[in-house]
Amino acid sequence: MGNNLQFYAASPRNLADLMAKEITSCGGENLAETPTGIYFSGSLETACRFLVWSRVGSRLFLQLKTFEAETPEDIYKGVYSHPWDTEFDASASFTISTDLIKTTVVNHQNFASQKMKDAIVDQFREKTGERPQIDNKKPDITLHLLIKENTAVLGMDLGGGSLHQRGYRTVSGPAPLKENVAAAILLRSGWPEIAEKGGSFIDPFCGTGTLLIEAAMIAGDTAPGLLKRRRGMDFWKRFNPEVMENVLREAEGRRAAGENRIPRIYGFDKDKNAVASALKNISSAGFDRFIHVEKRNFENLSVSFLPPGLMVSNPPYGERLDEIETLIPLYKGIGAVSSKELRGWKIAVLSGDIKLSKAIGLKPDKVNTVFNGPIECSLGVFRIYSDKEKSDLKKTISKKISERTPSSPGAEMFANRLRKNLKALRKWVSGSGVTSYRIYDADMSEYSAAIDYYEGKWLNLQEYAPPKEIPLDKVKRHREEMIDGLLSVIPVYKQDLFIKVRKRQAGKSQYNKISTVNDKKVIHENGHSFYINLSDYLDTGIFLDHRETRKLIESMAGGKLFLNLFAYTGTATVYAAAGGAHSTTTVDMSSTYLEWAKENMNLNGFTGDSHRFFKADVLTWLQREKKRYDLIFLDPPTFSNSKSMDKTFDIQRDYPDLLHWTTSLLNSGGTCIFSTNFRKFKLDSSIFPELEIKDISEETIPVDFSRNKKIHYCWEIRRKQYD
Q1: Which of 73, 233, 483, 619 is the most buried (most CB within 10 A)?
Q2: Helix, strand, coil percentages for the chain (3-state, nearest 5)
Q3: Number of C-alpha atoms within 13 angstroms, CB side, residue 466?
Q4: Mean pLDDT of all residues belonging to the chain
């Protein structure tokens, strides 16, 4: 028959690229890929090899005829025109499956199938006087009709059914993973390469053992089609059984030789019934000697006796929202246990929900979409580095980073300014213990940006929006020069540089999300810890220019009743609690930031009823609050028009009322620390005859902000004491 046969191989969605490699290795040519399959040409041997060796394919169709059809009668005529007696005898039974895609020729699959059946039966009756029988349960021949728009394609299913059914699964569990999907997960995870090097394999949620068996088959070079004889071509008249026998004989030889290369494969499951089912399936597949399965909870995973390799897990992932929420601790545990027990391993986790994927808490090397039946899942592949690997990798990357050089005069000029700034800050940084600080703040007019360096790991570059008259190409060039110069001086990975453009803000837009990565990191300041988010907001969760202000609050908070207004993420509240405040009260209008404040308090060990949190419009809350406080931190926005407020807020216009209401809550001898970052702000102390107001702006500006004395203004305010 030569190589002139035309085929279509179907696969699960998003896996055609893997199947393309299989087709090529089987001798297929002229591949044309679709999202769910591949058209190709080849010989009978190509088809036999694919049926025996494809791990990912679902079905293999031989394309018999293509024709145009605009009416049901066209279907009949087109089918009738094919010489069916050259494909099978009238003594053979057959069945028909039909797919309709974007067509108006017929409305129902059954009607199209009926037209095709009538044409075949009528032709046989007229030519031979006999008619083949329809058998939908165990047909000798399986035919297929595809009508896409007005084009019809006749085909024959050479596998006689789905190729994912290998024949070893004697026991099935709830929501089983199809065998070809399991194989694809292993291929995506890099198992063939790991197995070739002798790496181990574990599945801590092994269920009925599908991943374990497919892993053994891949490692041992066992063809998926060996266990179940494919009968789809037995009654096809153009089939030569000798070709298939040769392919099977070769596959048997490869299996015998490959068994010696199967590495150690272990499966665990907390359900004893699942373990029993897995053992039966493993025995059915003939891998009893190579796969060990036992009852064990994932939390008790310990594999120090195994060479590092690959862990693949298909844990429960639920479909309803309440199920997903209850599974989050499990996925957090996967990340925690893997980080502790699987150093030097690669792990891959299949998840049906983005919340569960994120709960793992590890950064994936890659993510692939995998469909487990109708459920769209993500397959995250992670590398858990051993201590040695981390050290070697760090050295390699540090060497590459150290070799970076600016690629333009502008980048070199910017790099020189950064070096000058860092040199000036070096002594202060080493002596103060500060680990997050500002290294550049629009020092040069053409490079208008602020750059903060966090924990020696992350850079946050906030570019100030340029005037409209500056050409965009010039703006882009200056930005690229800043990035180039910055990365040539500071040894960080490119993915750890976060770039934002800061525009003049209206309302609370500076607090709006600009991304949804939700990747919080922990930084340290003066013995305290805080969560920051460098990707999702313009501001990161901590105002570094208030470092000295927070220290002042800590020094004053001992035994005090502390109130934090417009609290943002509660960093000042943490300092007050650390300073020994009797109680803290934190008020902010944003649910997001109030939760963030609670997380910061929990991170530092401050919990309990003595720490209160209120989601409220501060202006309204102040007028209703009856309790009195000893120490108040007041750091309002410059402007807000939030829908949660009764009216707009403007710091210059509204500060008199704000200060009156705030200071009215001070106990005798109490202090209010008032701050604003509005550069044009003017405070008129004459309208507050009852208050003592001291400007402490200069002493609250940190060293790293000394180039910008107007980064904020700050006052210490007390109510006057009268004899």
Answers
A1: 233
A2: 35, 25, 35
A3: 16
A4: 91
Whether 675 and 550 have beta carbons less than 8 Å apart is answered as: no
Domain 179-220+262-384 has CATH 3.40.1190.20: no
Amino acid at 527: G
pLDDT tier for residue 505 given thresholds of 50, 70 and 90 = very low
Structure-block tokens of residue 6: 């035309």
What six digits make up the tokens of 624?
A: 């209703």
If one counts every other C-beta atom within 10 angstroms of the C-beta of residue 219, the result is 24
Check if the beta carbon of residue 631 is closer than 8 Å to that of residue 558. no
HSE value, Cβ hemisphere, 13 Å, CA-based, for 200: 19
Which is it for strands 629-634 and 666-676: parallel, antiparallel or unpaired?
A: parallel
Pairing assessment for the beta strands 520-525 and 691-695 based on DSSP bridges: unpaired
CATH architecture of 521-719: 3-Layer(aba) Sandwich (3.40)
Q: Which CATH class is domain 5-157?
A: alpha beta
State how far the Cα of 87 lies from the Cα of 63, in Å rounded to an integer.
12
The H-or-E segment that residue 383 falls in is strand 375-383
Measured distance CA(664)–CA(692) in Å, rounded: 13
Distance CA 601, CA 621 (A): 22
Report the CATH fold assignment for 406-504. Answer: Transcription Regulator spoIIAA (3.30.750)
| pLDDT at 277 (0 to 100) | 95
Domains 5-157 and 406-504 share a fold: no
97-110: pLDDT as tens digits: 999 998 888 889 99
